Amino acid sequence: MTGKKIIAFLTLVMVLGLQAVTTLDARQIDDISCSEAIVLLVPCVPFLTGLGQPTPSTSCCEGAQNLNQKADTTQVRRDVCECLKGASMKFGVNSDRTKQLPQLCNISLSFSFDPSIDCNT
């Protein structure tokens, strides 16, 4: 199996796993649901898990930027944080990659996202 086929297969597995995650946590996060937030970041899964390229794809950065724009209040950001924190544990993301994503996608955040972050601070 070639590298691209492996990435495509793993992405499919992640999307199917996403269905299970969103079924468990389908609450609405103000203007964006938890499942919508996760779907926006699905293109980032290969980068965030360390199975893809050393830099995020264009579609990953577009999704992350879109999510950042939609999470425009403190409460929405906290809710998205809790959602992504839970999803990151289920998907097994690399915490170093989560910290790199905002900078690599030119997103200005006042905090560093880490799966162990306290979303209330």
Automatic annotation (TrEMBL):
InterPro entries: Bifun_inhib/LTP/seed_sf, Bifunc_inhib/LTP/seed_store, Plant_nsLTP
Family: Belongs to the plant LTP family.
Name of this chain's protein: Non-specific lipid-transfer protein
Any GO BP annotation: lipid transport
MF term (GO), any: lipid binding
Source species of the chain: Cicer arietinum (Chickpea)
Annotated function: Plant non-specific lipid-transfer proteins transfer phospholipids as well as galactolipids across membranes. May play a role in wax or cutin deposition in the cell walls of expanding epidermal cells and certain secretory tissues.
Alphabetized CDD domains for the sequence: nsLTP1
Keywords: Disulfide bond, Lipid-binding, Signal, Transport
Highest taxon in the source lineage: Eukaryota
Region forming the signal peptide: 1-26
Residues covered by the Bifunctional inhibitor/plant lipid transfer protein/seed storage helical domain: 34-119
Pfam families assigned to the protein according to its UniProt record, in alphabetical order: Tryp_alpha_amyl
